[in-house]
Each structure stands twice: as structure tokens, then as C-alpha cells.
Design goal:
Layout: E1 2-7, H1 13-22, E2 26-32, H2 36-46, E3 49-51, H3 54-61, E4 65-68, H4 75-84, E5 88-92, H5 99-112, E6 116-119, H6 126-136, E7 143-151, H7 163-179, E8 185-191, E9 201-208, E10 212-219, E11 226-233, E12 236-241, E13 246-252, H8 261-264, E14 271-276, H9 284-296, H10 306-325, E15 329-330
Parallel strand pairs: 1-2, 1-4, 2-3, 4-5, 5-6, 7-10
Antiparallel strand pairs: 7-11, 8-9, 8-15, 9-10, 11-12, 12-13, 13-14
Helix pairs in contact: 4-5, 5-10, 6-7, 7-10
């Protein structure tokens, strides 16, 4: 069993602690949070030691694998300390506050021979895993467009960043994951409607190689949660509902000779059958942490590398720059 610990047990970190306590290959030994009351509450719940000083925890408990769920501004400092103490590290996205800090973490992990993984949890949604497989098998044919929509109400937990840094890394990463490509350029429109300090609405266009276009809609202004990914290609369209872990395929049927002339005139695109795939749904966080532990054991490569996390951060910062400057940004 791998000795695990969590630094920062707020809304996401406490779920990491829960999953580690449930996994057969993990031994949750401790949690840490600067808020001692929260650390005590979570630690007591799972029957493990708790600390308000993560450095003390690293020194006394010597965990082999650590999740870092602290605010983004602290990712670099805490991750460096964890790796230098001997632990492999999973950092909740984004990898860091700046590109320079992210690159520093990647270099340190290589020098210290530590596994560095970034928590892009959307990849581990069962529907996205199946969609990736179907795209690789060529079931859609050529990909024309990918569209991601992530909308919902304003989260009370967010104060230090806007909607782009908080949410866009999920979607630019899933675009990279599904296409296997990095964008060439981006253009974004951003607005600040309700949030007092940062943008809370984004609409962006991304241009990928192979003539693939991308579109991204993210906001904190929609009173109901929407998590949707559409991939359009020559044989039809795949649709993922992130919230229900459902994958659909809408077929581009061929127009038959029996159909009326008005439809025949389309000569190509017509409505065909819709398929909803049966798949084994799993909690994405559990799949993510299982993969992290398997990478430590050497069973698989790190599935979301520091470089993946850094590329997602670069794209998110490029979207902010584009929105602020009102111009296309080459990436």
C-alpha cells in the first residue's frame, strides 16, 4: 500500500481524502490544512492524523504520494516542499499560478525522479474515455469541430481567480485530449457582469491543425449547471453530457432515392439514427487517483503530465490576454 496524504482539505481536498481512504492500494496517513479546525474535522472523520502545518506533516508522516488542494498561488511552494520530502505529487488544476512556476515544477520532478500529475479530472469521465477511444478508432472520420460548454451559477468558494483560470483549463485540456492536438491561435471575448474582481463570462474560438475549429463557452451566470462537449465530423456528431456521463452519437445518414426532392437536394448531410452508448460509469476522482497510484507503481505512464497541465495553463492565460487586448493570440 502507498502511504498517501492530502494538503488542503477544502471542498475538493476532502474528497481526495475520502477516495484515498477507500482505495485498496492507498493508505491515507494524514491530512493538513492551514485552518486547524477543518484539518481536525476531516482527519477525525477518516481516523488519521491531522496538521495545520503541512511541513510538519511531511516530516513526521513521510507520505509517498500527496494531493495538493491548496489555493493556486501556493501550488509551487507546497509542491516543491512535497517533492523534496520524497513524495510523488498530484496537483489540482491549474498546475501553478504562472508559466514559470509550472516549468520549475516539471524540472524539479525530473531532477528528483518524482511523479508529477495534474488533476484534470474531466479526462477521467467514463464518457470522455469512450469518446477518445472511438475517435482513435476512426468512427467519426475526419474531425471538423469541437465545442465545449461549461456554464453554471457562481461558486461561493472562488475569490482569487476568474472563470477562465478556474474552469477553462478543464475544457482546453479535454480539447487537447480528444484531438491529440494543440491549438495554433485563440480569440476570446470576456465580460465581467457579476463577479467583483474578475471575468465571469468567456466565449472563445480556437484554431487547431488539420483544419479543426474549436469553440468554448464558459460562465458563472447560468442558473443551472451545463457540462457539454460536441465533436462534429464527417460521419456525424458525438455528444458528451459530463454531468450524467452519457455519450451519444448522432449519425449523418445518407439521403436515399425515395426521399422527396427537397431533401435529396442537400446531397450529403441528413438526420440519421441516434445512439446512446452503454458504458460503465465510475466516479472520475476515483479513476483519477487510481491512475495516479498506478503510475507511482510503474504500471502505467503518468496520464496527465506536468507538461499537459502547463499547456492547459498557457492556453488559459492566452484566452485572458486575448480578451483583454481584443486580439487574436498565436499560441
Amino acid at each position: 500500500m502507498i502511504k498517501t496524504a492530502v494538503i488542503g482539505v477544502g471542498s475538493m481536498g476532502k474528497n481526495h481524502a475520502r477516495v484515498y481512504s477507500e482505495l485498496p492500494d492507498a493508505d491515507l496517513v494524514a491530512v493538513s490544512d492551514v485552518n486547524g479546525e477543518i484539518a481536525e474535522k476531516v482527519g477525525s472523520h477518516f481516523g488519521v492524523n491531522y496538521y495545520d502545518d503541512y511541513r510538519e506533516m511531511l516530516e513526521k508522516e513521510k507520505p509517498e504520494a500527496v494531493t495538493i488542494g491548496v489555493p493556486t498561488a501556493l501550488h509551487h511552494e507546497v509542491a516543491m516542499d512535497a517533492m523534496q520530502s520524497g513524495a510523488h505529487v498530484l496537483i489540482e488544476k491549474p498546475i501553478s499560478a504562472t508559466i514559470e512556476e509550472g516549468q520549475s515544477l516539471i524540472e524539479a520532478a525530473a531532477k528528483l525522479n518524482r511523479k508529477l500529475m495534474v488533476g484534470h479530472i474531466v479526462r477521467f469521465n467514463s464518457a470522455h474515455q469512450m469518446l477518445k477511444q472511438k475517435l482513435e478508432e476512426g468512427e467519426l472520420g475526419r474531425v471538423f469541430q469541437i465545442f465545449c460548454r461549461r456554464a453554471g451559477p457562481f461558486p461561493a468558494r472562488i475569490r482569487d481567480v476568474g472563470v477562465i483560470v478556474d474552469l477553462a483549463p478543464h475544457d482546453v485540456d479535454i480539447m487537447r485530449f480528444l484531438t491529440g492536438l494543440d491549438p495554433i491561435r485563440v480569440f476570446a471575448e470576456i465580460e465581467q457582469r457579476i463577479h467583483t474582481d474578475h471575468e465571469d463570462l468567456l466565449f472563445a474560438l480556437l484554431r487547431f491543425p488539420d483544419h479543426i475549429t474549436g469553440a468554448l463557452e464558459i460562465n458563472w451566470l447560468t442558473p443551472t449547471k451545463i457540462r457539454e462537449v460536441l465533436v462534429l465530423g464527417e460521419r456525424g456528431m458525438f455528444r458528451v453530457d459530463d454531468l450524467t456521463q452519457d455519450l451519444y452519437f448522432y449519425e449523418n445518414a445518407k439521403v436515399s432515392e425515395e426521399l422527396w426532392l427537397g431533401v435529396k437536394a442537400l446531397k450529403g448531410v441528413s438526420e440519421g439514427s441516434m445512439t446512446r452508448f452503454a458504458l460503465q460509469r465510475r466516479e472520475p476522482l476515483k479513476a483519477e487517483l487510481e491512475a495516479f497510484l498506478q503510475s507511482i507503481e510503474g504500471k502505467i505512464p503518468v496520464p496527465v503530465t506536468g507538461t499537459d497541465g502547463l499547456n492547459a495553463l498557457k492556453l488559459s492565460l492566452a484566452l485572458i490576454e486575448s480578451g483583454q487586448k481584443n486580439q487574436v493570440i498565436e499560441v
